[in-house]
Write a structure and sequence with these properties.
Two copies of one chain form a homodimer.
Chain A lengths: L17 H19 L4 E2 L1 H8 L3 H11 L3 E2 L3 E3 H12 L5 E6 L3 H8 L1 H4 L3 E8 L8 E2 L2 E5 L3 H8 L3 E4 L3 H14 L3 E4 L12 E4 L2 H16 L14 H5 L18
Parallel strand pairs in A: 4-5, 4-8, 5-7, 8-9, 9-10
Antiparallel strand pairs in A: 1-3, 2-3, 6-7
The structure holds a DNA duplex.
DNA sequence: ATATGTGAATCAGTTCACAGCG
DNA sequence: CGCTGTGAACTGATTCACATAT
């Protein structure tokens, strides 16, 4: 194996690991903050601390983009901001549609994070005829019937789904058919999409369940889970947060 | 070196990989749907398809929980629902507070995903005195001043931060000091927490930037198919702000 | 002297492929 | 048989540690 095809051309922007891509926005945010404070340069150590990662990882990440630092000195903040922005495709304008203007959709439309950084809410779409024409975040809601036309007229390639779960796949199919190739899904459903379409999901319920898992573990670390405790011990367990062993173990057991 | 932190090879299958934990809610959702349709058993193949993963991964995941399947048959739906629920800590009640009742916080309070599965919105907290007493999703908003008391009175161990970025760390510190040990952060900030506190973040802006990265690459790839000449056809899509402009370097990226 | 950039080592997660059980 | 459960191989990500450049 490994005959041939393994070596990548060392040119930048080819083959950046997914995990690295996912951290670039984090670095960018930290750098932007530094830029606003007119900090001219930053070391991998400092920047890593600001982004909440370790410095070796950060350097490795940046090495995939190219050699943008200066040995013995650090990284030029402005220059890095520009390079990362470009790498992420933020130097261009991305029109986005939000489908499903309920509580969440409306909140997203109003969310500042959308407007910043090259993302522009091009249209809001909802299935409820009563919503049609009503402005949300200053943008009139349009009816689902016109979805395809809206996508095409605005050259939209990124769609946000904030519909109820039951409608999500259907909306997704229509978005994809109309030309959308990236979807951010807030509906609690697994979306099926053809190859070439990226889906990222944001799922509140899943995040909470993951937290609950760890929370449960903290609360009863030694008692096996064989017996489902009635567990109203949550309140009692709270106080245990104060004590944390240095290298752990021997967690306080809390009887109800 | 690194102080050989051997993961605990506990007597039983304690030590479920993080990646597996993150998928359990997905399986649970698929199983719940089957359960509602009164499907008695399901194979790893079918369930994997419903959850959007591959079947080997699913079987491996389940193997960390124990041997809950029957060879030649599959998994008992009801039984698995119970086992996964228990593993995730969903057989108990988790009171949750939401801090920051703006558009997003209100949407979260109204979100159905919260109410289901053992999570209960115990309180809504906001810094705006004008909000105090106003009901959101049927729950009166309380003022930040009372945060500590609210946490303690309700035995809250999971907090959701939906404040503006500037307030998030401060809120986080107070939550942790009051006994919260799991935080779901919607604010676009890296939170610093002591050991023993779990943070998960949900960041719209980051997700969009990741999508933009892939989107940009799709656009650029159509022409650079390794064989074709550098046709200008798809170059139109790629705005080609390729290298630094002759004059200003200042990128026109505005943060928020 | 100092901090980057990167091979090499390590660790985590995924997939394979088949033994083992119903 | 069919389908689970799992060692083994593999792939990807992280961390280490130091040569390298300023």
């Amino acid at each position: 194996m490994a005959t041939g095809r393994t070596h990548r051309p060392a040119t930048r922007s080819r083959g950046i690991p997914e995990a690295t891509v996912a951290r670039l926005p984090l670095y960018l945010r930290a750098l932007t903050a530094l830029s606003e404070r007119s900090v001219p340069t930053v070391s991998s150590e400092e920047l890593a601390a600001a982004a909440g990662v370790n410095s070796a990882k950060l350097r490795k990440d940046f090495s995939y983009l190219g050699s943008y630092g200066t040995r013995g000195v650090g990284y030029d903040v402005e220059y890095l901001v520009y390079q990362i922005s470009r790498e992420l495709g933020l130097t261009q304008d991305w029109p986005v549609v939000i489908v499903g203007i309920g509580n969440l959709g409306a909140a997203l439309a109003n969310y500042g994070g959308f407007a910043s950084r090259g993302f522009r809410v091009a249209a809001l779409i909802d299935a409820d005829p009563a919503m049609a024409g009503k402005p949300v975040a200053g943008i009139p809601v349009q009816h689902t019937d016109d979805l395809e036309k809206i996508i095409q007229d605005n050259g939209v390639s990124i769609g946000v789904i904030a519909t109820p779960a039951g409608a999500a796949q259907q909306v997704c199919d229509r978005l994809v058919a109309a030309g959308v190739t990236s979807i951010l899904n807030f509906a609690p459903t697994v979306l099926n999409v053809p190859d070439g379409v990226d889906v990222r999901k944001v799922d509140l319920s899943i995040e909470l369940q993951i937290l609950a898992f760890h929370e449960q573990r903290k609360a009863g670390e030694e008692s096996a889970a064989d017996t489902a405790l009635p567990a109203a011990a949550a309140a009692a367990a709270r106080k245990a947060s104060a004590d944390q062993g240095p290298d752990g173990d021997v967690p306080a057991v809390m009887p109800a």
